[in-house]
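Memo to structure team: turn this sequence into C-alpha cells by end of day. - J.P.
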Amino acid sequence: AEFKFELASEKDDADLRDILRRTPMQGMVSLSFLREPSYFKALEVEGFSSQVIVARERSTGRIAALGTRTITKAYVNGLPASVGFLSNLRILPRYRSGTILARGYQYLRELHNNGSKIPFYLTTIMSGNLSALTALTAKRCGLPLYKPWGRLITAVIPTGRKTRAYAADIGRGRPEQLREIAGFLRREGAQKQFYPVYEEEDLLALKGKNLAVENFFIARNNGDIAGVIARWDQKSFRQTKIHDYHRAIKLLRPFYNAVAKISGYPHLPPPGA
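Reply from structure team:
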C-alpha cells in the first residue's frame, strides 16, 4: 500500500528524466541512458503507442520506479505484426529489495488484459547488466516468464580514421528515392525476425527526428539496391553518457588514450561525456 501504480503523464516528464540520471547501468563502463529534453518526445521513435508505468509513493507523490510499454510493428515469421516492447525499467536503489518489481508487472498484466491483442513482448538487456538479468530471468513469483531468443550484436564504427576507398556504386538518398528505399526495407526486413516495419510514411515522419532521406546511403548493383545504411544523429532527443569507469579502466585510461591518439582508434572520454 506504500505505492500506487499508474500511467505517467506529461507533467511527470522532469521526474522521469531525473530517475534516468540517477539510475545508471552498472558495469565495467557505467552508462546513463538519458532522454533530454523530453522523455515522452524521445518515445516517439520507438513505436506508434507508448505507455509509461510508474510506482508513485502515496505519502509524497514522488516516483520510485518506472517502465515503458511500447507497441510497435515488426516482422514476425515474415509478416508485419504488432508486438510489445518493454524498456527503460528503472527502480531507485532504496526501493529495489521490496515487491515493487512484481507489483509493476502485475499492473502491466492488467493493461495487457484490457483489450490488448499483443501476442508477446520483447525486452533487450545488455549483457553486462547482471542486476537486470538476475531480476528478470529468475522466475520470481509475479514476474512473467522470460525466454531467451538470441543476442543482438552492435557494430561500432570509429570515425575520423583514414579508410581505404572501395569502388562501388554508392550514392546519397534523394527525396524521389524514398519509396524505393521503403520497398527495399520491406523486402529485406521480412526475412529478419522482429525487424521494424518501415513504410514510406514512417520514414517521412522521422524527418522531424533528424532522419531525412538525405541521411541514407544507397549501394546499387546493376541499378538495383543492394543495401542501404543511414546515419541517424539522435543526440537532440536521447543521449548515452558515461557515468563512471571500473577502477581498472580508470587506471589504464590515460595510457590507452595515448596509444589511441597515435593509432587513430577512438579514445575513452571522461565521465560525464
